[in-house]
Amino acid sequence: MSLAAVTRLEWRRLLVRPLAWVLAALTVAWLAWNFTLLLGGFLASQVQRAAQPDGPGFVDLVGVPLLGQLAQLAFLVVPLLAMSTLAGERRNGTLPLLFAAGVPAWRIVLGKYLALLGWLLLWLALALAMPLALAHATHFDWGKLAAATLGLALMLAALAAVGVACSAFASHPALAAAATLMIALALWSVNLGAQLAGVNGGAINWLAMSTHLQPLLRGLVSSADLAWFALLIALALALATRRLDAERERG
Amino acid sequence: MTSPIPASPRVVLRLDRIGRRRAGRVAVQELSLELQAGQVLGLLGVNGAGKSTTLSMIAGALRPDRGDIRLNGEDFLEHPALARTQIGWLPERAPVWAELSVGEHLDAHGRLRGLNGAALRQAREQVIARLELQPLARRLAGVLSQGQRQRLGLACALLHRPALLVLDEPANALDPVQAAKLRTLIREQAAAGNAVILSTHLLAEVTAVCDRVAILHEGTLRHDGPLSTGDHAALERTFFEIAMNGVVRAA
Q1: Contact A191, A205 (CB under 8 A)
Q2: CATH architecture of B11-98+163-245
Q3: Residues of B with CB below 8 A from A16's CB?
Q4: Mean pLDDT across chain A, nearest whole number?
Q5: What is residue B150's predicted lDDT score, i.e. its pLDDT?
Q6: Which of A249, A250, A233 is nearest to A109 (CA)?
Q7: Residue A193's pLDDT is what?
Q8: Which of A1, A2, A6, A9 is the best residue to mutate to test the B interface, defined by the most B CB atoms within 10 Å of its own CB?
Q9: Record: contact B108-A99, CB cut-off 8 A
């Protein structure tokens, strides 16, 4: 019950804040512009591709690259939306109100996380609506798009969890946003050196988010990749919960 | 024929040697108190005496380092969810979610306290009527004056009809008319069988509504006794003796 109340409260706060609307409007407009560019490129190359029956299709050339653009935007959008979840409450002095309502720390963290995730999935759905609008007019690889969508959803879920955790630790929302951005970039590019050196395996590559997202964007769903995202989400939410518990203990 | 033994008043709150350190110093130590149903306890003390820390612990926003808190006979530290239905808390400066309207605040607080549907609507209407919040119901909390925020905070504390009302400086920023209405409301709560703890700097506030007074100094309880109407001079003498010397001299 209190989990739903916290989720609803956070959802409402997200919806009435101009920041969420402005970010949604700007990013969807950017994605729509890119969609028309990708679509133009796809149409221009139709004659060449007619000679390659097994060549890349609409999903490969328009759908997945569009989701790739959304993944890049997520590095900016998620920190900005997640920063206030807990650091903003702390700064406002409203966090003790949640403690005093007898809501356990894990429900506060999970409730806020679910509201943020709901917003991000809605954002993903808006981006997805663009290629889906042409599903009836082209040969559509549903499996590949579903795998890429799953990958993006998991990436957003993981970044949101990292954002909530940073917000739990930060004293100021801006610090939380900066920390989320740094951690997200580190997770994305931790294996950059190894990649440049031509190393494709090992722990450093396993740590990188790109290692687990790229196969999903190519249509390959592996339980190891899903487990990596699940582990990251669980770890971040557990850390956020511990931080809030400690705050209630220490004051 | 023997006369019936009068039933002893129900103890709503029992603090047993609670203590708390904050920012490396002792904020509250060895504090024991009992509060019965229908009692109004005035909690006095100079700045930094430990009043707000004590109230935060009673409200469930902060855990004591040591000691026991029992709420209606149940171990509050073991079952912090008791706060949800049994305690209403107005923190100092009445923090609000600035982006939500007054009505949305009441809904959010009601849901956090387990109210839903018709019960929530009814409780909201009653508290809005009782605190004369109708003209403010659609206004954003962020644009309210401090006095209006106090009334909103009080409405949120009363919404779920708690057995224990914890008020931290409730008369702050209230105009004389609203302050008089607050006193009436506190007496109403006591007459309805609820216990009230009122922390304030205003001795006149205490003599007007409280039937008991506790004085904290440097985190310890220095005085706890009944208060009769017209005891203002005696209370003032006691308070200043404790505040200046830390002790009450024998009469």
Answers
A1: yes
A2: 3-Layer(aba) Sandwich (3.40)
A3: 99-100
A4: 93
A5: 94
A6: A233
A7: 81
A8: A9
A9: no
